[in-house]
Design brief:
This is Helix-turn-helix transcriptional regulator. This protein is mainly α. Helix content is 71%, strand content 0%. The longest helix is centred in the middle third of the chain and has 24 residues. The two termini are 18 Å apart.
Length: 458
């Protein structure tokens, strides 16, 4: 029997569930629209099922007919392509993107995102112009941001600074737990924190100062939820939380926190194969910060740009951004210790790891190897998921250099570490790296590695 989770592997399945439609009902509506337009082709339950399951892609004409049935503008069909445009017919688009950028709109989004819903898997909900539109809205509203100051005498208990400090400490602990455990189980705790903070925003009494702090906590909780859902490949859910975090950062008047969210969003879309979308998000963040902003944050943003350029195959652009990242990070090391806690992870080991990943993407193992080695030698052993990913990239670099024994060694280490967290992203990184060894098919060393990998890649 199919589970609810299985039903959400495709955006068309999400539409059917949210609208209470069966395959037969959608097919009937589709045939009706065909008749109205005087078209001859038809559709039945089986054809709609093939579209929903990913076994068949509808023709351009069929997609435009379906868009009319679902109420999606035809420009989005052309702009986004199949199946991404279908997300515009779901609550992801209607409930997260469309509400106004105001305190009322933010609270509406928070109530929806923290409600009891089935996790959304499989596809990015936002890309292209709609994704850049969200970033542009953030920048425009942040430029005129004012603190959240909803204080009503009839609301609940007053939020004190001491309570908010405790709530902030809980979020800091979740961030550090993520280094060890990843999103498989931890995302449920993060969602509970976000739900609690959102309830306080809706019911408690707070002044302007505590209101800003409360919405800063909501921003970080929503960002963390986005990151943890991304870690388990629940991409639509991750984007829902990221957009929520962007909206909340405006209420908190926290531009650096919002820029951090954009950087996290960019990482998701670049690894899903949209490096140009990632660069658009990162340019929005860096343009808004200008020459201001924390140097460590600016270094992280530059490193993300480098990764996007590398994935796009632009070695020159990648190298330029890596040089900027190193310069900003050196400046951060000599600046006063004023960096926000949420950027703690970006240090020289992380920059080396990201630079190494860039050169792996650009198939330059000789440049990647020393950087990855440096990162692994200095990175904390607590960073289990990160070490998993970097050992996998080290294995890929060795594979690109035709050093099979060393490649198998690193992939084996990555598999052992991945078993501790079951991070979907880590396992997928190993899978992609292992594919570079296909030319050695049948080699006993590869057979041994594959048997080890099968124990975690269920």
């Amino acid at each position: 029997m199919a589970t609810a989770e299985d039903d959400h592997l495709h955006p068309l399945a999400v539409v059917l569930r949210e609208r209470g439609l069966t395959l037969e009902k959608l097919a009937s509506s589709y045939r009706g629209e065909l008749a109205r337009q005087g078209l001859r082709s038809g559709a039945d339950r089986q054809l709609i099922w093939k579209w929903k399951s990913g076994k068949k892609t509808p023709s351009d004409e069929s997609q435009h007919v379906l868009a009319t049935v679902l109420g999606v503008p035809h420009t989005l069909v052309t702009e986004r392509g199949w199946p991404s445009w279908v997300w515009c017919a779901t609550n992801t688009h209607g409930q997260v993107v469309e509400p106004p950028w105001s305190i009322a709109g933010t609270m509406k989004v928070l109530r929806w995102v923290t409600g009891d819903r089935v996790d959304r898997r499989g596809f990015l909900a936002l890309s292209g112009a709609s994704l850049l539109g969200v970033a542009t809205e953030w920048a425009s509203n942040m430029a005129t941001a004012r603190a959240a100051a909803l204080v009503a005498e009839t609301r609940g208990e007053y939020l004190s600074r001491e309570v908010l400090d405790r709530l902030g400490n809980r979020l800091a602990e979740l961030r550090h737990l993520d280094d060890v455990f990843g999103g498989t189980d931890l995302r449920h705790l993060a969602r509970a924190e976000l739900r609690w903070l959102s309830t306080l925003a809706d019911t408690a009494t707070y002044d302007e100062t505590t209101g800003k702090t409360l919405f800063a906590h909501i921003t970080e909780a929503a960002r963390l939820c986005g990151w943890l859902h991304f870690d388990v490949a629940q991409h639509a859910a991750a984007q829902e939380h990221y957009v929520t975090a962007l909206r909340s950062s405006v209420e908190a008047n926290a531009p650096e926190a919002g820029a951090h969210v954009l950087a996290c969003m960019s990482f998701q879309v670049m690894l899903e194969g949209h490096p140009n979308d990632a660069l658009s998000l990162l340019d929005t963040a860096s343009d808004f910060l200008g020459r201001g902003g924390n140097a460590r944050l600016r270094a992280m943003i530059a490193s993300r740009k480098a990764r996007a350029y590398a994935i796009a195959g632009d070695a020159r652009g990648c190298g330029h951004q890596l040089n900027l990242a190193e310069r900003y990070l050196d400046a951060a090391d000599t600046a006063p210790a004023d960096a926000p806690d949420w950027i703690y992870y970006f240090d020289h080991a992380e920059l080396d790891a990201q630079a190494g990943a860039c050169w792996v993407s650009l198939s330059q193992p000789a440049r990647a190897r020393p950087l990855i080695d440096s990162a692994l030698s200095t990175m904390s052993s607590d960073y289990v998921r990160d070490r998993t990913i970097y050992h996998a990239r080290s294995g890929q670099a060795y594979a690109d250099a035709n050093e099979l024994d060393m490649a198998c060694r690193d992939f084996a280490t990555a598999i052992d570490l991945a078993a501790q967290t079951q991070s979907v992203r880590s396992i997928e990184t190993i899978r992609v790296g292992r594919a570079t060894l296909d030319r050695y098919k049948g080699d006993p060393r590869i057979n041994k590695l594959d048997r080890q990998f099968q124990r975690i890649a269920c």
